[in-house]
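Class prep. Write one:
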Amino acid sequence: MLENLLRPGKIGNLQLKNRIIYPGMTFRLGDNKGHLTAAEVDSMVYRAEQEYGPALITFPGLNDSMFGKVNRANINDDEAAYILAKQIEKVKINDTKTMAILGVMGLRDNGYNEKENLGPSNLIFPFETKEMTIDEIQFFIYKFGKLAARAKQAGFDAIRIQTGTSKKVLDLFVSPYTNRRKDQYGGSLTNRMRIVIELLEEVRRQVGEDYPIIFNLQVQELIKHGTTIQDGIEMAKLIAPYVDAFEPVTAKRFKGTSMHGSEAYFTSYGPLLPYVRAIKEAVPEKTVIASVRMGIPELAEKTLANGDADFVSLGRPLFADPEWITKAAKGQTQEIVRCIGCMNCYTEGIRKELFPAYHRACTVNPANLREKEFYHLEAAEDPKKILVVGGGLAGMEAAITLAARGHDVTLCEQNKELGGQWIVASHGEEKGDYKLLIPFKKRQLEKNRVKVCLGTTVDKNYLRNFNPDVTILATGALPRELHFDFPLGDVQVVQGNDVIMDKVQVGDEVVVVGGRYIGMEVAAKLAAQGKHVSIVDMAEIGKGQNPLLFDHYLNLMHENHVELHYNTPVVSFTSSGVDVLCSTSLLTLQADTIVLAVGTKPEDSLKKDLEELNFKYCMIGDCKRIGDALYAIRDGAEVGRII
């Protein structure tokens, strides 16, 4: 099935066993000394150990300074270089090659002054930068060359020069938007590219002619007055003599995210392929790598078969399922754990209180950073009769894991379909990736012979008659409500979940109370239908939410003219709409429909019955504490390995 993906290839003089690259996945761990942790290295080793593993594994960003020492791989002294060399050796198994990323720290990765953001010009927006002098530019180039040499000495088989996020020094120089210089490093494209050419010349001098250099090329900025695809093609031609391969990307500075591997479910698959084709046509003699949302085996294979690219970079697909290549090679595509584009892997700071040791986690793969211990399921020494109550993600994951270990598992769900709150979360038209998760879990339930009882309410009598050895309580949560002792007249009050599921009709004047995911999604949806929508929250709109997803919903709300009222407490609901406190004044937001999106509360009513019966039980998912799909699946996976 993967004739082209599994075919050997070359980048420069580097022979590679297949056409798949695993890019640098930064887990944001670290030992405060600039060393990658054992968990990070073991994670890469695990992917190299697979029957069909990636040909080239990229280590997360390499520095030669102490800036970013907590979550980066430093090579700033002999100790760091020695440790890194040993870690590289571990990953080089099964003919797997390794690559280092250079230039990851962006503005401060200038090699000269770690306390200031140095760039081509004095700017305050979009980034506050101080204009680099000629001496500082030359020192930056010198330091970059030395870093490349040290990477080669440490044992890396190739280096990748990182640009393409609009935050790197080279990006800022190349862009006409941020480069306002009047000297030889500013003005024309040739002048703006001068620092890139000089840097590549120095890197090539340091590493030699036969050492592979991959260049992460920002071919177009998706902003006014930024670089165009024509600029990108010209840039590729200018630097082609100095590099062996290109990985084309685009960037948008002010709206949404950069297309450099971190695109969410609302982005189509293969969004960069038009740019990849353009660069391949411009420099056909050079290797070109396709990246970003390439995780469908058929798409990746077709891209190579058509000659659009020579290699495919698969980051989050292999992050979600280390066996992606093996399963695809064997035609087991339905068994692949698909990345759903939820972006939870980019919200490590929000999750710090619960996952201090696993800052970058994956919703669909709770095994990340503990692969060897987690993927190996030990058979239950004393198989038990287990009742799982609740068919959401937590309950399904627990049932699957327990049954796989040999327990006799029955899963009861009071509704007529499995999925719980994920049915709501995956309902939107653009959430095709989300919709894959429940069918995948259903297949796993069937494969592991879990007895599933739909439309079944578990109460005290049911528990008594079933008499389980252990009960897993995964009953989820219910939407919170707000009550006010005022006559509402004809004003309708509905829940955000019901709006998303199209279970209710709403009026033309809508106030959404609650500014997190449900509230933002509802506001954007109704406004797109032509309704006048206001959204109100006592805190910031989108507070604590994934910034990459928040950008998306914020843009949708702006485009559809949603009125945003943040830091605005609700005083009451009335027959006119919603009274809110705006600064020190009372403001009435007119509404014929009020949509509640004020969060959820645990549904744990069965806990009392279990305790009265003196039955053993465990609580997981939202009924234990409110979380999201990442927490739910992780809870189910972990409890399934304990019992």
